[in-house]
Amino acid sequence: MNDRRTTRERRTGPAADEASAPAAVPGAGPRRFLRAALARVPLPLRGLRPRLLTSFVLVALASSLGTGALAFREARTGVLQQSQDSVINRFRTSIDAVARYIPPTPDQSDLQSAVNQVLYANRSSGWRIMATYGGHRAYAPSAGFTEPSPEMLRSVRERRAAVFQRMNVDGRPRLVVGMPVTYASEEGTEPRLSGLVMYLEVPQTTEEGYVEAMVSGIERATLVALCLAVVLALLAASGVLRPVRALRRATRRMAAGHLDVRLDVTGSDELADLSRSFNETAAELERTVRELRRLEAQGRRFVADVSHELRTPLAAMSAVTDVLDLEGEGETGEALRLISEGTNRLSGLVNDLMEISRFDAGVAELNRDEIDLAESVRRTVAARWWQGEVEMRLPGPGVLRARVDPRRLDVVTANLIGNALRHGEPPARLTMGVREEGNGVAWAVIEVTDNGPGISEEAMPHIFERFYKASTSRARSESSGLGLAITAENVRLHGGRIRAANLPGGGAVFTVELPLHPAGTGAGADGGTR
Description:
Blueprint: H1 30-39, H2 48-99, H3 108-121, E1 128-133, E2 136-140, H4 150-158, E3 163-169, E4 172-183, E5 192-203, H5 205-255, H6 270-327, H7 330-361, E6 365-366, E7 369-372, H8 373-383, E8 390-393, E9 401-404, H9 406-423, E10 428-436, E11 442-449, H10 483-493, E12 497-502, E13 508-515, E14 528-529
Parallel strand pairs: 8-10
Antiparallel strand pairs: 1-2, 1-5, 3-4, 4-5, 6-14, 7-9, 10-11, 11-13, 12-13
């Protein structure tokens, strides 16, 4: 008989075409989609262990599915090809056996006899046969043959090759083969089509069973691969996370101030390199911090020593200028007054530097005493002749008492009032009261308000820094830039709080909060160190 050719597969009934597959829709931004998906993942699942586990499982799943799909495709193609070749060869042999008895122009009875003979020769195979010639058709068995597609009918009529088509009828796979019968011609010429075409429909239930068995085997293999991937992921995560956890603990200890922490380095992989880099960084940081601390201590000692050495001659100079200031007249007296003012300012700066050095060295002491806070504020204002420049709203005598250091409270009050008078027009306003919190803690609140332009937004974060001046044009003013820094240190030494803000109508307000302790209690009943 003739060679055979194939057309594309076609399915009929409820199932879709085997050869067709839905087109993949391109994603509009895979990275954005991935970030959005990760954002929805709960925080406990974003750790390194869950990510390693997920990565191993995804890789194993992709590998298993890819390998399984490739093996399934090759095995399915082999099974169907072998079955198809066997059926077509048997069908061709059966047609060759009956074709010699078919007349050149067969009628209906001749067609029926031919299909009956082919079916009888393959009666145990579940075949269905159809023969066509002109307008005649014959079936064996008499009914139930699946109608071939128009493309297959046209291909069989026009070609001398066998054509097959796999179809799905009511959910069951079927193979339909169309084979034209040709007349032998003289040697060297192609055979002629007789016009007679034999069709075969055969079920492929056995082949489908083989395919389902392969799918089941691939599923079991995929499940085993996933379990193995989970075990490997847990082992790998343990190996990776052990040095990572050690690094995390070491960094936390370093952040807590333990700069001598080091990691044990084992192996020569990337994690070992990371541990070595951490040890080198920690050693360099420890060396740098040690050097900075040494330089800082030297700087503090230098400031303290210089301030101490300057204090005695400045005191002598101040005494002399005070005497000369009383006797000087005219231009000489003006010069002496300038010298006196400069000497007093320098003396105040030296005293401030010594006070700052005590705070830095941690030796500033609190000499607490139970006093009337309102009376202490009145004495501070009276001692500096500020009665006409400060509006005070204070509680009555004996109403607000606390254990504080009277000298340091005097410094706090004087610095705040002096700052308000320097940066705003008199009068400055000072109020004092008590604020109680819900947990039973009470605070003495002192507020000092000025009439100045307020504090700029740029200066607000630095207002309590040393030597900071909000206006560079006032670099030569009477202020040394240490008053507010010393004030803040004294407040913190008492366990209090200080803050600065701007008033809605203009001007700045400084608020000091000091904790109120009952008599006989509190830190440093008679004295203490910072």
